[in-house]
């Protein structure tokens, strides 16, 4: 049976760290759905459509990756779509607390769910969307940190 996983996140914007996690996930699973979360409670730099567009653009060369919106609780999405596997990335120890809490809470709500953690390449282990936003806000060079299609959009966004 084919194995499908989802990779949920805010992706504000997608970075090379996210992309590294996606590439690893696409090798492990037959299908990987990147789920871009709406994030009502968070003020994001890019709106949902922009975040979706950037993830689509960055992953267009990976054939078994699809992109969709997450507009409900993750466990509801998983139950509705009969998906058990969730992919998340781990950077430093600082990610662990939050990821541990999320994985345990979600698996209480949906016991069949399995969270699979991957580490990104050491090149990206320090990289986060917030760092990228910060560098861009001072008009710094983000070209080593984000996929090509993000660079232009980020420049436009911070100039405005
Ligand atoms: P969220 O708001 O759900 O944390 P993010 O877009 O910040 O959304 O991150 C989504 C997932 O990607 C998280 O599991 C996060 O730990 C992981 N991630 C982000 N950047 C990296 C990176 N550079 N290396 C490994 N994992 C990463």
What is the fold's blueprint, element by element?
Blueprint: E1 4-9, H1 16-28, E2 31-37, H2 48-59, E3 65-70, H3 74-80, E4 85-90, H4 93-109, E5 114-119, H5 129-137, H6 148-159
Parallel strand pairs: 1-2, 1-4, 2-3, 4-5
Residues 9-11, 15, 17-18, 21, 88-89, 91, 95, 120, 124-125, 127-129 line the site of adenosine-5'-diphosphate (ADP).
Structure characterization notes:
The chain is an alpha/beta fold and 160 residues long. The chain has helices spanning 16-28, 48-59, 74-80, 93-109, 129-137, 148-159, and strands at 4-9, 31-37, 65-70, 85-90, 114-119. It has a single domain (4-158), classed as HUPs (Rossmann fold, 3-Layer(aba) Sandwich), CATH 3.40.50. The chain contains six helices and five strands. It has a five-stranded parallel sheet with strand order 3-2-1-4-5, sandwiched between helices. The longest helix is centred in the middle third of the chain and has 17 residues, at 93-109. It is globular, with a radius of gyration of 15 Å. Bound molecules: adenosine-5'-diphosphate. Residues 9-11, 15, 17-18, 21, 88-89, 91, 95, 120, 124-125, 127-129 line the site of adenosine-5'-diphosphate (ADP). The site of adenosine-5'-diphosphate has 17 residues, from helix 1 and strand 4.
């Amino acid at each position: 049976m084919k194995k499908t996983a989802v990779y949920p996140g805010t992706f504000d914007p997608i970075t090379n760290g996210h992309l590294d996690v996606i590439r690893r996930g696409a090798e492990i699973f037959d299908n990987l759905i990147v789920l871009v979360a709406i994030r009502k409670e968070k003020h994001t730099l890019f709106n949902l459509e922009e975040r979706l567009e950037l993830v689509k653009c960055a992953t267009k060369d990976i054939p078994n990756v699809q992109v969709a919106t997450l507009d409900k609780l993750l466990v509801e999405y998983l139950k509705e779509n009969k998906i058990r596997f969730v992919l998340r990335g781990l950077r430093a120890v600082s990610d662990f607390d939050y990821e541990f809490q999320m994985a345990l809470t979600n698996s209480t709500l949906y016991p069949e769910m399995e969270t699979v953690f991957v580490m990104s390449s050491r090149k990206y282990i320090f990289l986060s969307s917030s760092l990228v936003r910060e560098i861009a806000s001072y008009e710094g060079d983000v070209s080593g940190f984000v996929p090509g299609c993000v660079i232009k959009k980020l420049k436009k966004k911070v100039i405005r």
